[in-house]
Specification:
It is a single chain. The protein is α+β, with helices and mostly antiparallel strands. The chain folds into two domains: about 120 residues, no CATH class; about 55 residues, no CATH class. About 20% of the residues lie in helices and about 40% in strands. It contains four helices and twelve strands; from the N terminus they run βββαβββββββββααα. A twelve-stranded antiparallel β-sheet has the order 2-3-1-6-5-4-7-8-9-10-11-12. Strand 11 and strand 12 form a beta hairpin. The relative contact order is 0.12.
Length: about 230
């Protein structure tokens, strides 16, 4: 596909209802995400969108071929679970987004209804097992005022665990329940937590555990290669 002229590009999970043909151009698919070339006049007020940062931030993109593209302008549209970017690139090749000191990846996950969805996650660890965080807009009714009830929105954060190629699952509130996500090498995982006296509800302990757990698969890979 030819490179895209510098414009606002939106990587989103679902077709954006209400867009006219003049406002959006369907490009293709990337890791389960629909990609649209957007007109630059589509501002947040038109969609009542909440952004992680209201201003454009400068960051980098890593492509599937591990090529790094720097000095790209991004905004994360939390309402749409989508990234808007201004770049002269083919968005189908985007693997991860790095901006505002954060790394974002696209992953499948088990949603609150027990079905599989896809979304963008902030990445906190990298290996066979990862700690991720998903941003979500929640709407709450405000108190009745002179103009009746007005809803307001805030951004919530939920932690997820992703193991191997499985969809990410919500981080449980107890160590014993968190361990249920680690079905492979279960004995080694439980023994390490017990030996090191880890509380997996603490981020430091959880990251320590994820690093150890991922190392088990690196060792298995090395043995298989030899």
């Amino acid at each position: 596909m030819k490179k895209l002229v510098i414009a606002t590009t939106l990587l989103t999970l679902f077709f954006l209802s209400g867009f006219t043909q003049q406002q959006s151009l369907y490009i293709g698919q990337s890791d389960g995400a629909s990609i649209f070339l957007m007109s630059t006049d589509l501002g947040p007020k038109k969609f009542n969108a909440r952004y992680l940062d209201n201003e454009w931030g400068i960051g980098n993109m890593q492509t599937k071929s591990n090529h790094l593209i720097d000095n790209v302008a991004f905004k994360y549209n939390v309402t749409r679970d989508a990234f808007e970017m201004r770049a002269d690139v083919n968005p189908e090749q985007v693997k991860r987004i790095i901006y505002s000191g954060k790394v974002f990846v696209h992953s499948s996950y088990v949603n609150e209804f027990g079905s599989i969805s896809g979304g963008y996650f902030e990445l906190f660890s990298e290996g066979y097992a990862n700690l991720l965080m998903h941003y979500k807009v929640k709407t709450k009714p405000a108190k009745k005022g002179a103009f009746g009830y007005e809803a307001y929105q805030n951004i919530s954060k939920d932690y997820f665990i992703k193991v191997g190629a499985d969809p990410a699952v919500i981080l449980e509130k107890k160590t014993v329940d968190i361990l249920k996500a680690f079905t492979e090498k279960k004995a080694e995982a439980e023994a390490y937590v017990k030996k090191e006296k880890l509380n997996l509800t603490r981020r430091k302990d959880l990251l320590d555990f994820l690093k150890y757990y991922s190392s088990l698969f690196e060792k298995s890979k090395e043995v298989a290669e030899n």
